[in-house]
């Protein structure tokens, strides 16, 4: 086994939260080491155009934006490495993080920015057309289907919120709900049901997303009546929940029942002193690049104050 490496500030994750934390931590002289994880750049690397990140008046491709984030963090001096955090030991005053099931790192402060992953139905067509009309983010991609008919699958608060968002942009929203009721809060359900251009397909599952190079329809199967129908749509939104990437922290870090890390409100502090969380791994409500970046900044500032107070910086 490799020898243990000691670092001052360790950042886990390379989405907007991790890179922003790296920019701030570098400028504060914390010499951060950032491990990028399995998907360098995070969820934005699987989207297309980003139009709602301030500072890009013409919009920018998600992957390109994440290259900018990385370059800026590197220019400030962050030590950016490819590698995946595979285990942690937060039981003592020095925080231990294992990388790639091999090497252990000891860090005075740790910033967790491991993000979340959208859940998918698991259809081959869904995967093939991802980015070509299939999306897991209506707020990111709805605008590209302005005035068009779209479908959305899911029945929780996210699906309800996204269906309402889409109803304001698109001509018609076809909402596919697998049971005869919705999981979303009553008020959200009522709003959805009272929106004239949202049509709900109860007891229905998605058989296939149809399209060669881009989505042109969705085949819906009513499991009660056994009727199948093809609904022409230009986009297919999946809103069946997200999975925060927090599994390895579970033995030490407080989380809610879905696995989102709990932070002390108004801060990025977790229940473990010296361990901070930012971005989607601790946010199930907003989940935007700009909010993730903002919370990455908070985490770096909190880490700096913590290290100063401990006399470590
Ligand atoms: P949820 O887990 O609450 O809901 C997921 C939905 O997707 C359920 O309706 C579920 O159906 C459906 N679903 C899951 N798998 C499939 C599948 N394979 N095929 C079809 N449908 C499927 O996730 P959300 O992202 O909606 O919400 C997560 C949490 O965040 C919740 O606690 C929610 O309240 C909260 N939230 C709050 C908001 C707010 O307060 N403004 C906004 C957004 C989210 P079924 O019901 O049959 O299981």
Q: What proportion of the residues is helical, as a percent range?
A: 10-25%
The pLDDT mean sits at: 96
Q: Which secondary-structure class do the elements indicate?
A: alpha/beta
> Which segments are poorly predicted (pLDDT under 50) over 5 or more consecutive residues?
none
- Chemical compounds bound to the protein: NADPH dihydro-nicotinamide-adenine-dinucleotide phosphate
Subunit organisation of the chains: single chain
Please tell me what the overall shape is.
elongated
CATH fold field value of the largest domain: FAD/NAD(P)-binding domain
Give a short account of the largest sheet.
Answer: 7 strands, mixed
Indicate the proportion of strand residues.
25-35%
Q: Mind explaining what this structure looks like?
A:
The structure is a single chain. This protein has 2 domains: 181 residues, FAD/NAD(P)-binding domain (3-Layer(bba) Sandwich), CATH 3.50.50; 119 residues, FAD/NAD(P)-binding domain (3-Layer(bba) Sandwich), CATH 3.50.50.60. The chain is 24% helix and 27% strand. It has 7 helices and 19 strands. The strands form 5 sheets. Strands 1, 2, 5, 6, 7, 8 and 19 form a 7-stranded mixed beta sheet that branches. It has a 5-stranded parallel beta sheet with strand order 10-17-11-12-13, covered by helices on one side. α5 links the parallel β11 and β12. The two termini are 30 Å apart. The structure holds NADPH dihydro-nicotinamide-adenine-dinucleotide phosphate.
């Amino acid at each position: 086994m490799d020898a243990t490496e000691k670092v001052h500030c360790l950042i886990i994750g390379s989405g907007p939260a991790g890179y922003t934390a790296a920019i701030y931590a570098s400028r504060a002289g914390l010499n951060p080491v950032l491990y990028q994880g399995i998907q360098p750049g995070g969820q934005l690397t699987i989207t297309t155009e980003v139009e709602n990140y301030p500072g890009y008046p013409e919009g920018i491709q998600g992957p390109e934006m994440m290259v900018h984030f990385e370059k800026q963090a590197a220019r400030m001096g962050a030590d950016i490495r490819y590698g995946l955090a595979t285990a942690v030991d937060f039981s003592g005053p020095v925080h231990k993080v294992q990388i790639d099931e091999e090497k252990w790192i000891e860090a005075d402060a740790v910033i967790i920015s491991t993000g979340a992953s959208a859940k998918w139905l698991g259809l081959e067509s869904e995967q093939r057309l991802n980015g070509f009309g299939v999306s897991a983010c209506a707020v990111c991609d709805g605008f590209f289907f302005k005035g068009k008919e779209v479908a959305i699958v899911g029945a929780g608060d996210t699906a309800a919120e996204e269906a309402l968002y889409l109803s304001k942009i698109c001509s018609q929203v076809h909402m596919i709900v697998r049971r005869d009721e919705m999981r979303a809060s009553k008020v959200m359900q009522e709003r959805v049901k009272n929106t004239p251009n949202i049509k709900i397909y109860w007891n229905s599952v998605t058989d296939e997303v149809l399209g060669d190079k881009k989505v042109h329809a969705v085949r819906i199967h009513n499991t009660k009546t056994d009727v199948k129908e093809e609904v022409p749509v230009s986009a297919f939104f999946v809103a069946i929940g997200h999975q925060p990437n927090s599994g390895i922290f579970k033995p030490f870090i407080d989380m809610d029942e879905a696995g989102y890390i709990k932070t002390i409100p108004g801060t990025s502090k977790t229940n473990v002193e010296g361990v901070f969380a930012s971005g989607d791994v601790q946010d199930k409500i907003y989940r935007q690049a700009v909010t993730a970046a903002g919370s990455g900044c908070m985490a770096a500032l909190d880490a700096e104050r913590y290290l100063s107070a401990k006399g470590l910086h």
